Amino acid sequence: MPPTLEWVELEDGPALRLLDQTRLPNETTFVDCTTLEQVAEAIKVLRVRGAPAIGCAAAYGLALVAARSSAPDVGALRSELAAAREVLGATRPTAVNLFWALERMMAVASQSGLASAAELVRALVEEAHAITADDLTRCRAIGRHGAELIRPGWSILTHCNAGALATAGYGTALGVIRAAHEAGKGIHVWVDETRPLLQGARLTAWELVQEGIPATLICDDMAGYVMQQGQVNCAVVGADRIAANGDTANKIGTYTVASLCHQHEIPFYVAAPYSTVDFSLASGDDIPIEERNVEEVRLLGHFAARPVTPQGVGIYNPAFDVTPARLIAGIITERGVAGPPFGHSLRRLAPE
Amino acid sequence: MPPTLEWVELEDGPALRLLDQTRLPNETTFVDCTTLEQVAEAIKVLRVRGAPAIGCAAAYGLALVAARSSAPDVGALRSELAAAREVLGATRPTAVNLFWALERMMAVASQSGLASAAELVRALVEEAHAITADDLTRCRAIGRHGAELIRPGWSILTHCNAGALATAGYGTALGVIRAAHEAGKGIHVWVDETRPLLQGARLTAWELVQEGIPATLICDDMAGYVMQQGQVNCAVVGADRIAANGDTANKIGTYTVASLCHQHEIPFYVAAPYSTVDFSLASGDDIPIEERNVEEVRLLGHFAARPVTPQGVGIYNPAFDVTPARLIAGIITERGVAGPPFGHSLRRLAPE
Fold first, then answer.
1. Residue B33: which domain range?
2. Do B40 and B73 belong to one domain?
3. Which end of chain B is more exposed for a tag (fewer CB within 10 A), N or C?
4. ipTM score
C-alpha cells in the first residue's frame, strides 16, 4: 500500500504528499501540499481523513508553514504558527486527534530553548515525524491487543474506514483485522459501504483486497439482515473522539451498527489510539457533531453525475454519531483493552 | 401525479403504459409494453415495482397477451396464457401479490362460460381493470385506518417506496402518510434513501415533494441517529409478503429499521393490502428472498458512471429481509389494523 501521507522535498522546498482518498479506488493519485490552505482544504474535502491521519496531516501542516515561512524571527514565526493553528483547527470539529496533534506541535513552538527560526523549523518537522511514527507504532499495538479478542473463523463487521488510510498506516479497526489475519485466524470481514461518502465501499474494501483478506461488501441497511442470519461474530470500528465515560463519536451509522449488535448479542468493539480519549468531556453529549454539505447525499458521495433526489426535498447530513458506552464491549487502545465500566478502565490505562 | 400504470389503446392495439421508475426523479418518461417480454422485463428491472403495482402489471400482462394473441380458439389461448403465467411468475420471487394477481387472472381464464376468444379477452381486461381499481380503493382504506394511529405533529420514518408508485395509486405506507397529512395532522416524514436502488431518495422523496408533505431525506445509516435524538415518533413501511404469524418480508433494510425502532420503543407499523398475507406460510422462514445483481451495489443503483468498489471484493445483494412479528406494533390493512398476536388478528380480518 502507498503511504497515506509523507513529507517530501520538492525542488522549491518541502511538501506534504497525500494519497488523494477522494479518488480511490479508481485512481491512485497524490497531491503535494505546499501551503497551509492546501492542507486545510485537503482535510475539509477528505483527501486525507480518519481521526489519526487528520492529526498527522495537521501536524505536518504546521511544520510546512514553518518550513516555508519568511518570518524574520522566532517571534514572528510563532505568530504565524498561532494563526495557522486556528485555520487547521477550524477544518473539522469532531475528531479530537486534530486538536491533540496541534497542541503537541504548539507546545514545541513555544519551547523557550529554540532561539532561531531555523531551529524551530527543525524541531517542528521532527515533532510531526514523531507524531506520525508514533501513530504507526500505536496502530500495530492496537492490532496486537485487539487480535486476542478475535476467535478463529470469525466474521467481523466494520463500518467506514479505520484502516491504514485513516492513520499513519496499519489502521485501528483494520489494524485489529490485519493482526488477526496475520495470526492465521481465517477471518472474514463484512464491510458496510458507509453512506454518504462510501469510505467502506471505496477505502476499506480496497485495503482488504490489497491484503488478500476475505471480505464482502454490503449496503448499510443490510447489516441487520446479516446479523439476523447469524453471520456476524463481532463488530470493530474506529473512533473520532471518546468521552471519559466511554461514549464514542465515530462515523455516522456507527450507532446504528452498535444498536444492531446489542439487539443480536454480538460484541461491539471500538479501536483507537489512547489519544482519542478526551478526558475533558464527561460524556458524549458534549461532543460536537459536524454537519456536512447535503450534496454528499444528493450526488451519492459525488459519484453520480446529477442529483438522484427531487428538487425541494429536505436533506440531513450529520457526519458522526455518538455510541453510548453501554453498547460497547471493549475499547482497544495501544495500552490495552478497556472494558466496562469505562470511566474506571480508561483512566487505569493512562501513563503513570 | 401521473398514473403508475395504465391500459392504453395504441394504433395497432392495446398496450400497458408504465411510468418508468428507473428514470425518476430526473425524467418522467413512459414505456408502452405491447408484448409479454416487455412486461416481464419491466418488472425484472424495476420500471414498475412495489408489490401491489407488480400484481397489477402482471394482471395487465396476461390481458395484453390475450388481447394481442392470434390463437385460433379458446383452448389455444388458454395454453398461451398458461405459458405467459409462468414467464410472469418467474420475474420476482418474494412479493406474493404477483402470484395472487396471476391466480385471479387464471381463474377468469378457466371460466367455462367464456365460449369465444374475444369474450375471454374482454373478461381478462375487465379483471385486470378490477384488480387495479380495487388496489386504489384498498390503499385509500389503508390510509384511513392507518391515519388514526398517527398523532398530530408526529415525525414518521419510512423505508423504500410504498407509495402511489408502488401501487395503483395513493400507496400503502405513503397512503397512511397521505391520509394523515390530508387530515391536517401536521406530520413530517423521515425518508430512508434505501440502498441499493435508492427508492426512498428517488421515489418516496419525489411523491412527498409533489404532495407538499414536509420530508427530510437521510442515508439509511442515519436512521439510528435520528431515533436516538428523539426525532422519530413511528415508522411505517410496506410489505411484499406477510406470513400467517405476521412475519413480514419487505425491502432489504426494513429489519434494520424495525430493530432500531424496538430498541428505541418507537412503534413500527406495516401497511399492506390484505392480499399480501400468505396464509400458506406459517412463518417468515419460508419466504424466498430474492438476490439481485451486485452491479446495483457497485454502480450505486446504476447512477455512478463506473464502479465505486475495487476489483475483487465480494458483494452481497439480498433484495428483501424478514421482520419478525415480535417487532411489529400493527399491520394496517384495508380491513382494519391487526395487532399482536397476529396469528389470531390477521385471520379475524378475513372476509366471511
1. 5-139
2. yes
3. C
4. 0.95
